[in-house]
Fold this protein.
Amino acid sequence: MVDASWIALGFAVSMVAAWGLGWRLGRRSPTPPGEDPGIKFTDGSMALLGLLLAFTFAMALGRHDSRRLAVVAESNAIGDFYTCASLLKDPVRSKLQQVIHEYARLRLDMDSGRLPKQDEAGALQQCYDLQAKMTTHVAEAVREGTPIAVSLSNTLTNLTSSHASRLAAYDASLPWSIVVLLFLSATCPSFLLGQRQGESANVHLAGTFCFIFMVGLVIFVVFDLNQPTRGLITVNLSSLEQVVRSTAN
């Protein structure tokens, strides 16, 4: 995935280029005196851009919040499973607690973006391997006749289910069709604005570049929210960090 800063910069450069192209075309065909009906198209495209920016920002913020809730749910599931495992007898208890701690630490490394891009697939497979070990240890405890077999099985199921939910939340991103639509909605008003200024031979550089800067800033925030493990706005992992510390005891 391309970094949010590069996407926002690309949008800003495209808007400047579209404005410049519109200004050059407008200079070739000055507007006659009187009211210009073309200004209505410029106003309409500006309104559409604002609506689309609000829509995509709300979508990105909602998915960011879903990722945060998924992390909290998975952290609670890991902590509940560790608490349940602490009621078992040794040696199953020690072996299961060690696997749970390794799993929690690996999950924290994955969500914090500490792992290189090429290691993400291997880390995900390691998560599944650790879940398989947990299942093996739970089955061993059940065979030994542990009185908390139901609770142990349920907390293990919650752990694997929360992991799947977290993966789905982190994989969700803005569709590229919306990105393309946002790109067109940003460049078209810039082109029309440049054309109007070229026709009137009156360039408003400060207002134009402030407008482009603000739109680019909003787009940066939208795409920064869209990348969960990097950027300025990341998911709060304090609940998962607390689980790693508590399982280390």
